[in-house]
Amino acid sequence: MPDSTETGERLIAPVPRVAIQAFCETPDVAAAIETAAADRRMQKAHIKVQAGGGAAAVESYRHAPTPNVIVLEAQRGGKEAFLAHLDALAEFCDAGTKVVVIGHVNDVLFYRDLMRRGVSEYLMAPVEVIDVVRAVSDLFNAPGAEPVGRTVAVIGAKGGVGASTVAHNLAWAFSRTYSTATVIVDLDIAFGTAGLDFNQDPAQGVAEAIFAPDRLDANFVDRLLSKCSDNLSLLAAPAMLDRTCDLSEMSVDGLVDILRATTPCVVLDMPHLWTAWARRTLVSADEIVIVATPDLASLRNTKNLYDLLKANRPNDRKPRVIVNQAGVPKRPEISAAEFAKAIGTDLAGVISFDAPLFGTAANNGQMIAELQPSAKAAESFAEIAGAIIGRVEAKRNRGASLLEPLITKFVGRKAS
Questions:
Q1: What is residue 244's predicted lDDT score, i.e. its pLDDT?
Q2: Which of 25, 34, 76 is nearest to 54 (CA)?
């Protein structure tokens, strides 16, 4: 199923701004490459798919420069002819052009012939869309390089649902419970609360990174980070109204690329707005968390968001939905089961309403797990964070192992 393509094993890095041309022999391979071109990780690449295989590629590049990547399909039974086309193509290939071959035979000798001719990758047909994306991505990421960081975008289904609170507590769980270096990026430039929630008042933050793209590099971003703990840093929002935030569609791309190249986990605290850049940032994230409250407006907006993001990310895990502020006294609410059924997915978590706990944490500039580690909400944040990064909370496992002998003894006693 689509959401199994990006589990905790290895994330696929976005493909840089390159030109890719594919020469296919069969409709199935052409369709797979065309579908891969629409994947979020390929959005910077320019991809052209045409028919003809190796022969067409040779004719195309006799008098034209070659692109960054050439994808060739080799038909079954035509190995010698295909190798001859590769040899002819080598005469016209520009330095640095990479070649990916999609073949229909599992032949070691054919594979070795391809490698000797400098082919970068060989894929066996039929190919899945995600195989194409992964193969192209790997061409531009050195073997043995550090794994790319995971981006987690958190957005509220409507204003006031506590999406920022959820984002910050999840980030705390990533960094503290699972010892994962994490950066919070507060993208609500005018009204962000990350600085308040972590009791930080940095002089610089996310605005300097976004509004000065010409200065953007890893060292500059590092200087803008405010340290919250050993494993947690913050790019705070200025929360000032001296300028508007009419950002271009790709204004956040450079910042996210730098952070994911240097940090294992990047939490994007998204504002509640719908602009070109917000949509692009959401669609481009590795994980999406939608935060809602158990009411009709939240349900409608969550359903709209969920369906749109699922449709635009067919090769990714489906967005996770968290119901926050559940159980407010005397308030009519949609039950968790009904909420999940209406959206068409299981809920990632339900956070119960606890006004004294959350209010005190906000006023103190603390996370829930700092203020009351044993609170149910703190356990919920840890469980959800563990699910997102594919890890199980060690404390919970230890507790289970300690109880097992007692449970076994009790069950045995009742049986006797």
A1: 85
A2: 25
Map tokens 């001719």 to a residue: 117
Q: Are 260 and 182 in contact (CB under 8 A)?
A: no
Domain that holds residue 361: 150-399
pLDDT at 397: 44
Name the pTM for this structure.
0.82
Strands, E, within 111-181: which ranges?
Answer: 121-124, 150-156
Tell me how far apart the alpha carbons of residues 55 and 212 are, in angstroms, rounded to a whole number: 47
SS3 category, 21: strand
What contacts 44, CB < 8 A, 6 or more positions away?
Answer: 14, 15, 16, 17, 18
Contact between 8 and 388 under an 8 Å Cβ cutoff? The reply is no
Q: What is the CATH number of the domain that holds 338?
A: 3.40.50.300
The stretches in the chain having pLDDT less than 70 are 1-10, 142-147, 392-416
Question: What one-character DSSP code corresponds to residue 345?
Answer: S
Q: Report pLDDT for 3.
A: 42
How many angstroms separate the CA atoms of 164 and 234, rounded? 13
pLDDT tens for each residue of 48-104:
999 999 999 999 998 888 999 999 999 877 788 899 999 999 888 887 899 999 999
**Euclidean distance between CA atoms 400 and 394, whole angstroms:** 10
Q: What is the pLDDT of residue 91?
A: 87
**Nearest-angstrom CA–CA distance, 327 and 334:** 10
pLDDT digits (tens, 9 = 90+) for 169-184: 999 999 999 999 999 9
Of 19, 20, 25, the C-alpha closest to 85 is 25
If asked whether residues 214 and 119 sit together in one domain, one would say no
How far apart, in whole angstroms, are the C-alpha atoms of residue 78 and residue 253?
43
CA distances from 173 to 235, 311, 382 (A): 18, 29, 5
Give the residue carrying structure tokens 């996210």.
Answer: 256
Domain of 100, CATH number, reads 3.40.50.2300
